[in-house]
Design brief:
heterodimer, A: mainly alpha, Fumarate Reductase Iron-sulfur Protein, Chain B, domain 2, 2 domains, about 55% helix, B: alpha/beta, Rossmann fold, four-stranded parallel β-sheet, about 45% helix, iron-sulfur (chain A), transmembrane helix (chain A), 4 iron, 4 sulfur cluster binding (chain A)
Chain lengths: ~450, ~260
């Protein structure tokens, strides 16, 4: 029975990591439901962008208040993960602070973890106040009602509880070491430095060793189980960004923001039309692949590219895009954040549908256009790129809007009437206004 | 105009067996819109003053396809693009300057993939180069010391990272440049982009150009400087809406330089 805790721990660890891997596989499967797009070029530049934007949080600090607090929480998260490694090893082998052989360096590490735990705690409380007490507009848009709001708060509660457990565990451990309790005390004196939890330890002064062990074990177990639960919560939450920010910034577009991709299928068709020698009835050359796209643009999440779907899963709903969107800021229905959230909702629904129907998608009478994203939203965009610029993790909501407009115009001829007139003008007289092309140079001789 | 400035066409150059230093791409607004034509003429005066050997396509120019593409009509865009590229390549054009950031962006970024490779400059970049080369001199003139704000066109600024050329020109005019609350990477759109110029806005609480004009007016500037004919229209409408047209002007930087030089 001596090894029962070790066995229970290993089971919990395997279950936690196993279910996480199961969900990540599903995530990758869903992302790959998108159409292909080549983002394998310029690896050097891509690594640089990932280092600067994801690892370096370069775009976060464009807004200094939330940016700097976010950097603290992010650093805390990364650094405390080193401690999680020790906790896992201790859990498997039943050891106590296995890394303590590092001596003075170990004391330094634990001290740093504690300080970051405190900073994370403070940061998360400020975040909670910003979300729930201060009336910050970007947290109050219509798409933030219900689950997204709860999700955001749950993440903060998780972090508060985890940090408090971590500090309680250390405080109880410090008390046990001070009291010379077996398994905890070391011949070399106190192991670890406790700059923060030393202020919690006095609360435990009058407790017996047995109760202290109970407190320490309870905190230790709930802490590590909490981490495993949190890990598995990611897939269901906007918090997925802590993982996906890295691939997303790596695969982000590198071209100038103003450059919209030219549709290759259209190019082939246009070239054929413009070529006087082309025979429109000619049979395709032997062996030549004739690529006729199923449709132009996107009306469904699976018409988008995998990179756009990765964008959707990466979005953490911070709303920096929406708060800079000229359409949204002037009361239009469009919110670039909602475009990303709706896209994720749809591809998730498609994924669930596939799972429920043994691996094939069963028509559900819905699509991304109209059922998730309305035309009114799409037509309100000025293509100004403010949302793309604002995103701290390289998401491009504009590209989805453009693909969906393409579907509306090229597949359904469903542009607003004014735009149809402008396009007819371009077609007939080479300008969006009804002026004759032969009058184009009239300005030269006008006074 | 005291004396008419000669604006040669590419066809005329071709007939003489010559080619100009640069093609001036006028754009639809610059060709047809009464307000934008003034910008076109001001820029032409500057080109003439700097003795730039330039030409226009005249009736052979047609819409770059920008509004069609942004409206979602890729087919119409590419038809326009390919037609234009055929004309440009036929004249062996190497260098293009335009006063419209939308034309600039489309030709510079979206034409190369369709066979159109040119050196493309926005007119503010071109004017700056002329000054740097000593071909054009600019002194403060009537704008010296005046409070002036610059509105970043989305397709010049964020889309192509050109923030400084227009500001450098304003500095040459020795103005007191005051930035709006949102500028450069965070510049707020005028509301015309993405083919919005050619349609009614969706229902909302305010028009985008009014919001932007309010921001510009907050700077207490005498002139709202622009670098795009569409921004110019939107901001001019905004200023009229706020009944400030008597105290605040909306001017293209080319117009400012031309009028500072009394051209």
């Amino acid at each position: 029975m001596q090894y029962l805790p070790n066995i229970l721990f290993v089971i919990a660890l395997l279950a936690g990591v196993g279910f996480f891997v199961f969900n990540i596989k599903k995530l990758i499967r869903n992302i790959k439901l998108g159409r292909e797009e080549d983002r394998s070029d310029n690896k050097g530049q891509r690594f640089k962008n990932m280092a600067k934007i994801a690892l370096g949080q370069y775009k976060m600090v464009v807004r200094p208040v939330s940016g700097i607090i976010h950097v603290l929480v992010y650093l805390g998260f990364i650094i405390i993960n080193i401690e999680v490694l020790e906790i896992i090893i201790d859990g498997i082998f039943g050891t106590h602070r296995i890394f303590s052989f590092l001596g003075g360096f170990y004391d330094f590490l634990i001290g740093v973890f504690e300080i970051f735990a405190l900073l994370v705690l403070v940061g998360v409380i400020i975040f909670w106040i910003r979300r729930n007490i201060l009336h910050i507009k970007r947290f109050l848009n219509r798409e933030m009602k219900g689950w997204p709001k709860l999700d955001a708060n749950l993440i903060l509660y998780f972090e508060v509880v985890l940090m408090l457990l971590f500090l309680t565990m250390n405080a109880a451990d410090l008390s046990l070491q001070t009291k010379g309790a077996e398994h905890y005390a070391s011949a070399e004196g106190i192991v670890g430095a406790f700059p923060v939890s030393q202020f919690i330890a006095p609360l435990f002064e009058n407790m017996s060793v047995a109760s202290l062990i109970l407190v320490e074990r309870a905190a230790w177990w709930i802490h590590i189980l909490g981490i495993l639960v949190f890990l598995n919560y990611l897939y269901y939450s906007k918090h997925l960004h802590i993982l996906l920010a890295f691939p997303n910034t790596y695969f982000a577009r590198l071209k100038p923001q103003g450059q919209f991709d030219n549709l290759e299928a259209v190019t082939n068709e246009v070239k054929l039309m413009m070529d006087p020698d082309a025979d429109p009835y000619a049979m395709p050359e032997e062996g030549a692949e004739e690529e006729v796209p199923a449709k132009f643009g996107a009306s469904e999440a699976t018409d988008l590219s995998w990179a756009q779907l990765l964008n959707a899963y990466t979005c953490t709903e911070c709303g920096r895009c929406t708060s800079e969107c000229p359409a949204n800021q002037t009361g239009k229905k469009l919110s670039p954040r909602r475009i990303m959230m709706a896209t994720r909702d749809r591809i998730e629904d498609i994924g669930k549908n596939i799972d429920a129907n043994k691996g094939t998608f069963k028509e559900d009478g819905k699509q991304l256009l109209d059922d998730y994203i309305s035309r009114e939203e799409l037509w309100a965009c000025t293509t100004c790129n403010a949302c793309v610029e604002a995103c701290p993790v390289g998401i491009n909501p504009l590209s989805i809007i453009m693909d969906m407009r393409q579907y509306l115009v090229m597949e359904q001829s469903a542009a607003p009437t004014d735009l149809n007139n402008a396009m007819t003008n371009i077609e007939n007289n080479a300008a969006p206004w009804p002026f004759n092309q032969m009058d184009r140079a009239n300005w030269i001789n006008e006074n | 105009m005291a004396e008419a400035i000669k604006v040669p066409t590419m066809a005329e150059y071709m007939a003489q067996g010559k080619s100009p230093e640069v093609l001036f791409w006028v754009g639809c607004a610059g060709s047809f819109d009464d307000r934008a034509k003034k910008i076109t003429k001001a820029f032409v005066k500057l080109l003439a003053k700097a003795e730039v050997d330039f030409a226009v396509l005249g009736t052979e120019e047609s819409c770059t396809g920008d509004p069609a593409k942004r409206a979602g009509n890729e087919f119409l865009f590419q038809m326009q693009a390919v037609t234009n590229i055929e004309v440009l390549n036929g004249y062996e054009v190497k260098k293009i300057v335009t006063a419209c950031p939308h034309c600039f962006n489309t030709i510079a970024n979206e034409y190369p993939g369709l066979g159109g490779n040119y050196e493309v400059l926005h007119h503010t970049q071109f004017l700056k180069a002329l000054i740097n080369e000593g071909r054009l001199t600019v002194e403060g003139g009537k704008f010296k010391g005046k409070r002036i704000t610059f509105h970043d066109p989305c397709y010049l600024a964020r889309a192509n990272r050109i923030y400084e050329a227009p500001r450098d020109l304003l500095k040459k005019l020795e103005v007191e440049l005051v930035e709006m609350r949102r500028c450069k990477t965070k510049g707020f759109c005028c509301g015309a982009g993405g083919a919005q110029m050619f349609k009614e806005p969706e229902p909302g609480t305010q028009d985008v150009n009014i919001a932007r004009t309010e921001e510009a007016l907050e700077t207490k500037s005498e002139v709202i400087a622009a670098g795009c004919p569409f921004c110019n229209t939107m901001m001019t409408d905004g200023v009229k809406n706020k009944e400030k047209e008597d105290s605040v002007q909306v001017l293209d930087i080319a117009e400012m330089i031309a009028s500072a030089e009394d051209l």
